[in-house]
Task: inverse folding
C-alpha cells in the first residue's frame, strides 16, 4: 500500500538573465548546505523530522510497510505457538495466547482506522501530524504484542526451567537473556522504542501485566543498552 503525492508544475518565466542569477544563487545555496551537512556528520544523530508533505508521505509509507509486515509475522508466530500449546494441552498458556491475539487484532483495527483518516487528510492536501503520531504508536504497540506472542512460554516449560534453576542457582543470572525482546533492534533508538512499548504490555500495573516478564524485560534492556 503506497501513498502518492501529485505535484502540480507551473510555467517558468522566460527571462534568461534572471534565470542565470537564480541558478547561481541556487548553486551557492547547495554548496553552503553541503558544507554545513558535512560539519554536522560528527554530531549526535537527530530524530528524523517531518518538514513537508513529501516527508510526511515518505514516513507514513514506511510505517505502512511495517504495519503489513507485522501482521504477516504475527500470523506466523501465532501458528507456531498454537501448535506448541496444543501439543502440551497447556490451558494457562492458551489463555494468554488468546488475550495477546485479541489485543493484536484490536491494534490492527485501530491502525487501519487511523490510516484511513490519514489518507483522507492527504486527499485534501493536508498533513495530519497527530494522526501520524497515533498511527506510529499503534504500529509500535503491534510490534510489542508480536514480541509478547513469541515469548509465551507454556507452563510446563516454566516448571522445568524452575527445577533447573534450583539445581544450578548460578543460571538465575541469565534469566533475561533467553527472551527475544529486542530481535531486529540494531540501534540504541530502536531498543529504547521497543522497551517503552513492551513496558506498557508487561508492567505489573497494566491489564496485561506480568511481574516476572517485566523483570526479564528490564534485565534484557540493560544488557542490550550496555552494548552501546
Result:
Amino acid at each position: 500500500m503506497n501513498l502518492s503525492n501529485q505535484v502540480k508544475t507551473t510555467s517558468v518565466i522566460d527571462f534568461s538573465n534572471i534565470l542565470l542569477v537564480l541558478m547561481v544563487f541556487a548553486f551557492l545555496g547547495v554548496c553552503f548546505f553541503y558544507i554545513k551537512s558535512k560539519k554536522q556528520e560528527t554530531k549526535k544523530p537527530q530524530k528524523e523530522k517531518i518538514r513537508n508533505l513529501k516527508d510526511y508521505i515518505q514516513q507514513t509509507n514506511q510505517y505502512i510497510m511495517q504495519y503489513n509486515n507485522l501482521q504477516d509475522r504475527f500470523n506466523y508466530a501465532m501458528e507456531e505457538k498454537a501448535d506448541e500449546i496444543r501439543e502440551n494441552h497447556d490451558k494457562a498458556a492458551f489463555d494468554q495466547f488468546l488475550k495477546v491475539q485479541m489485543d493484536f487484532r484490536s491494534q490492527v483495527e485501530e491502525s487501519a482506522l487511523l490510516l484511513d483518516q490519514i489518507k483522507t487528510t492527504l486527499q485534501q492536501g493536508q498533513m495530519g501530524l497527530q494522526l501520524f503520531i497515533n498511527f506510529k504508536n499503534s504500529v509500535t504497540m503491534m510490534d510489542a504484542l508480536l514480541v509478547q506472542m513469541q515469548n509465551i512460554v507454556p507452563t510446563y516449560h516454566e516448571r522445568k526451567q524452575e527445577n533447573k534453576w534450583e539445581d544450578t542457582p548460578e543460571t538465575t543470572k541469565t534469566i533475561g537473556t533467553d527472551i527475544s525482546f529486542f530481535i531486529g533492534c540494531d540501534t540504541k533508538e530502536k531498543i529504547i522504542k521497543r522497551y517503552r512499548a513492551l513496558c506498557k504490555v508487561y508492567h505489573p500495573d497494566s491489564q496485561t501485566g506480568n511481574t516476572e516478564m517485566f523483570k526479564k524485560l528490564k534485565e534484557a534492556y540493560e544488557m542490550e543498552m550496555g552494548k552501546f
User: Anything to note?
Assistant: Residues 53-225 form one domain.
